[in-house]
Amino acid sequence: MTAQRHRTDTPAFISALLELRATAFLARVALTLPFWWSGVDKLFHPAAALAEIHAMGLPASWTLYVLLLIVQLGGSLAIIVNRYAWLGAGALAVFTAISTYVAHAFWNLEGAARFAEMNVFMEHIALIAGMAFAALYCHEVKDR
Questions:
Q1: CB-CB neighbours of 27 under 10 Å
Q2: Which of 12, 23, 25, 81 has its CA 20 to 30 A from that of 142?
Q3: Which pLDDT tens digit goes with each residue over 30-83?
Q4: By C-alpha distance, which of 128, 23, 35 is closest to 74?
């Protein structure tokens, strides 16, 4: 980080922590955890993955299965290694937006179910924002 970008109101030990390569790497791993974990699980349990695809009202096809793996694992890897992170973040954000709209349509529910699904929906919106921040950060800091 350059001296021009250093915040004077940030304590020195926090600045040092934020400038560590490991901090940036671990943050990227943690941000993508839901995607790469799901992708690895789908990789080892293809029948369950196809059933999940079908449960969302889509045809349980091997093409969708492979595309899902590419998006979840490839998008995560792009962010984690900070190569084409913008593409990985964009793919994961679009995937999250579509699957959230399909799977968490709280506006069709009532009572406690509506409240629970609305919370999941909002959490996914925050995850999409996290992808935007990942793309911004990785664009700004190419070597971490």
A1: 18
A2: 12
A3: 999 999 999 999 999 999 999 999 998 899 999 999 999 999 999 999 999 999
A4: 35
- Mention every residue, 6+ apart, whose C-beta is less than 8 A from residue 75: 32, 35, 87, 88, 89, 91, 92, 95
Residue ranges per domain, the chain?
A: 33-140
Write the CB contacts of 25 (distance below 8 Å, at least 6 apart in sequence).
80, 144
pLDDT digits (tens, 9 = 90+) for 98-117: 999 999 999 999 999 999 99
In terms of pLDDT, which residue wins out, 95 or 7?
95
Burial class (CB in 10 A: 0-12, 13-18, 19+), 128: middle
